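Changelog-linked ticket: magnesium ion example.
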Amino acid sequence: MAQFQEVSQKSTLHPKPVGLVLHYGTAGFRTNAEELDHIMFRMGLLATLRSKKTQATIGVMVTASHNPEEDNGVKLIDPMGQMLTPAWEGYATQLANIEQEELLTALKDIVEREAIDLIQEAKVFVGKDTRRSSGKLSQAVLDGVAALSGHSKDYGLVTTPQLHYMVCCQNTQARYGDATLEGYYRKLSQAFIQLTKNVPNRTDDQKHLFVDGANGIGALKVREMEKHLKQELQISLFNDGSSGKLNHQCGADFVKVQQKAPTGISMKAGERCCSFDGDADRIVYYFSDSAGQFHLLDGDKIATLISTFLKELLTQIGLDLKIAVVQTAYANGSSTHYLEDTMKVLVRCTKTGVKHLHHAAQEFDIGVYFEANGHGTVLFSKAAEEKIQQLSEDSNSNDERKRAALLLQNTIDLINQTVGDAISDMLLIEAILAIKGMSVQQWDAIYTNLPNRQLKVKVLDRRVIDTTDAERRAVSPAGLQEAIDGLVETYRQGRSFVRPSGTEDVVRVYAEAETQESADALANDVSLAVYRLAGGVRDEPKP
Ligand code: 16G
Ligand code: MG
């Protein structure tokens, strides 16, 4: 095939280190940037094939999210702005690991298996984060696209969710918005201003927010967004990348894991702060109280705030739409209880990883999904969007209903439904707090988290652990679940589960209980059970 000749030539410029094996993991490839040149070229090839197959624009984002600066990675984006379909993750892994001389055979194999018409035009959108290695690596993606005669558009520096948004806009012929950065800022800021414009007496304090940009792309983009917000949100930006190191002692992952404020942010008691991760697809909020105690408002608290707000609006407009919150096993037990028992909202639990939550959320009229780590968004079904729109335009409905329908309409416009988006989530949270006249302390007080602990256990091969029931129960190795059940029983409000990590060579252990002491002890007991029953290596876990 003539088209493959160019691939053959160009691929020698992006050679694969012999023997290197990498997997398309939970969120794409991610490793030290030095090992990624051939992966990028090959993902350019794969995205081009995917574009020909789907007859739509595909996205390729060069980023390693919250990983250190030396790492990099790549995520592929499907036509509606979702993450690459799992069926093609296998091809990505195959293509990544094939040795140089087998590359053409592997490509032909995908073309045959997927019955791809190579004559079909292809279009690929490419974006990158602020890492030093990202420029060269995104060029390798562009080379891959060109080698298969695909067309590309290089968006340069964008957040991951911005690129997801562009892909969706492009493939819906701009019904979702304009596929430009300007279009993105305009759509979100207009919705935000509409939502907040009738809120009485918002003080400057209420309009003020501290943002930790993780020294990454989110910081650059929040600066660009700020101009469009017309002072309705006043942002003090920290860790803006001008001096600090990406994700170092800052960012959403640091704050969530360390349960403390990032460096570089000077906050006074009660001030509302938030942190983005390195590619701005995650967000967490926090504040410190007058006693200096740190309070984290994670994805669970965010999901609770958003779903409460949406449910109240639905009640006001009298629409019987099915709303659900999708969580993972990491969601704090208190959040699940609050949602189910007090809010009477349907709660679903899925496996870890955004694609699983996204998929589950699609089954409802309104699906609010968040991982505890701050990654999430809200999905509205087509039918729900249409009903809400009709009501907002209905001249017969009373003022209260109409007001609520308009609020819902603007809320839909403010949300990036393609994927979790720190900037969009931030604006949504700020709008909800303003509309409800709620302080960050009041939001935090909706429910109190159960004390919890996460630990890691190193084992010879983490794949010996197999789980079921959305990772809440282990089916192998034999005896492990029984051991966990026995331990959990001995602690009040105890709950624990284990799962092999999808991003690190460890087994993760989660435990929660009535007191921090109990949660720590339970996590340690369960770690020991994993160590003994699942082939632990190095030293035994100790309290
Ligand atoms: C990835 C996932 C994240 C998940 C995490 C779990 C995406 C975009 N990111 O970062 O959702 O929480 O992996 O990591 O899907 P673990 O398997 O190492 O616990
Ligand atoms: Mg991220």
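Closing comment: Example verified and attached. The mean pLDDT is 96. The pocket of magnesium ion (ligand 2) is lined by residues 65-66, 277, 279, 281-282 (CB under 6 Å).
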